[in-house]
Amino acid sequence: MKTSIAVAALCAAVLSLAAHAQSYPSRPITMISPFPPGGISDLTARPFAAAMTRLLGESVVVENKAGAGGAVGYAHVARAAPDGYTIMMALSSVAIIPVADEVNGRQPTYTMADFTPIALVSADPTVLMAPANGPWKSLKDLVADAKARPGKISFSTSGIYGTTHTCFEMFLQAAGIRMLHVPYKGGGPSMAAALSGEVMLTAQSPGVANPHVKSGKMRLLASWGGKRTAALPDVPTLKELGY
Hints:
This protein is α/β, with parallel strands linked by helices. It is 41% helix and 15% strand. The strands form 2 sheets. It has a 5-stranded mixed sheet with strand order 6-5-7-4-8, sandwiched between helices. Helix 6 links the parallel strand 5 and strand 6.
């Protein structure tokens, strides 16, 4: 009996959506990027929004709402009207931040139940980067140096409890080393800090990292992926290096 009610309710919902489908969208759609320009959320959102604009026949406008490792933008979207006119290019940190709030005794500003996932756009592994002219030619070099100088090697991330911060802390714990975390408002500012020498290391998505690797300014030491990717065949994974 419950199954029949559920199916009937679903059919009614689908018919209702079909009746309104021809009128959507009737005005511009806002796509929130929870990070500043230059990071992977923004770099992915802009061409994606342009393609959606062509397909839907209505403008899809990217709006950056950065801060707190993406939490500011995520909370903004969680509070938006569920009418299909506010969408978001989220990173995996969207699932981490509410848990981090709970662990630290804070009231989460949103929960995953506030969102409806639509599609997986990309799933690139995060990569560990260092200056090409720096002292570390391999991850082994870096770990040895970090053990000799606990807390002295600095690294940038897109923000506290953001995607790159979380993966970096997982690596530090697995390697038994300590480094100095310097959080920024997003992947773009985090990458700029590594390029300018404000920090000694950074973790980035391949889309942000590759131009600087190709230019010879940065070197990739490892990847957080489960296996090597076709685009980065010479970059070992942390897993295969024992972490």
